[in-house]
């Protein structure tokens, strides 16, 4: 976020986490809120526009993932407010504050949509994992626990996405030889 003071502003609260720590935690959570909203709409974009022989299963999978992200949007925003913070959750704020790149608008095939989402889920997973450590260091085990819950699901979803790509990636690494075992992956 460009304006850290703005995104970390606090209301008075009786909560026992010091204001200085809460202000830093709120800033991290607002970054996550922007990225999660962005990733949810990008996943919906894939849900609507994917084409190809795997259309139906990808259309369904992307919708399921978008639904999970929608739940996390709410959980993250409400953790901000539970800490006395102000949630920055409009579409415009998400677009301007997200750590993720814009979704490619010129792709159609299922594999290209899966690749675009896997790239973005990997960046998002890294952000979430870093936030677990940061919020834990700031003395907020509850926010770290929320991030841990999100992290576990995002890693699983990255697996679901990459499982569509790994056979081709292993084959590419081994030349024309058929993919045999995961041990061939570095
Ligand atoms: Fe739909």
Structure description:
- This protein is about 70% helix and about 0% strand.
- The chain has about 190 residues and is mainly alpha-helical.
- Helix 2 (about 20-50) packs across helix 4 (about 90-95), helix 2 runs antiparallel to helix 5 (about 110-135) and helix 5 (about 110-135) packs antiparallel against helix 6.
- The two termini are about 35 Å apart.
- The mean pLDDT is about 95.
- Fe (ii) ion binds near residues 47 and 63.
Concise summary:
It comes from Nostoc spongiaeforme FACHB-130. The protein has 186 residues and is mainly α.
Main sheet record: none
Order of helices and strands: HHHHHHH
- Give the mean pLDDT: 93
Q: For the terminal residues, how far apart are their CA atoms? A: 35 Å
Uncertain residue ranges: none
The helix content, as a percent range, equals 55-70%
Shape: elongated
User: Given the structure, what is the number of helices?
Assistant: 7
User: Strand share of the residues?
Assistant: under 5%
Estimated radius of gyration: 19 Å
- Count of DSSP strands: 0
Q: Bound small molecules, which ones?
A: fe (ii) ion
Structural class: mainly alpha
Notable traits:
single chain; about 190 residues; mainly alpha; 7 helices; about 0% strand
Topology:
Blueprint: H1 4-7, H2 19-49, H3 55-82, H4 91-97, H5 110-137, H6 141-162, H7 166-173
Bound molecules: fe (ii) ion.
Fe (ii) ion binds at residues 47, 63.
């Amino acid at each position: 976020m460009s304006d850290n003071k703005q995104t970390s502003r606090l209301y008075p609260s009786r909560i026992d986490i010091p204001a200085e720590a809460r202000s830093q935690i709120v800033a991290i959570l607002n970054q996550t809120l922007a990225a999660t909203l962005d990733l949810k709409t990008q996943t919906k974009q894939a849900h609507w526009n994917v084409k190809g022989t795997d259309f139906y299963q990808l259309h369904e999978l992307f919708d399921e993932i978008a639904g999970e992200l929608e739940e996390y949007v709410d959980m993250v925003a409400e953790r901000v407010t539970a800490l006395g913070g102000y949630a920055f959750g409009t579409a415009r704020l998400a677009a301007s504050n997200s750590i993720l790149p814009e979704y490619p608008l010129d792709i159609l095939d299922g594999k290209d949509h899966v690749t675009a989402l896997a790239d973005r889920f990997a960046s998002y997973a890294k952000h979430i994992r870093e936030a677990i450590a940061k919020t834990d260091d700031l003395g907020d085990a509850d926010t770290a626990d929320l991030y841990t819950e999100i992290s576990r699901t995002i890693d699983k979803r990255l697996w679901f996405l990459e499982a569509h790509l790994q056979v081709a990636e292993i084959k590419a690494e081994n030349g024309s030889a058929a993919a045999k075992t995961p041990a061939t992956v570095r």
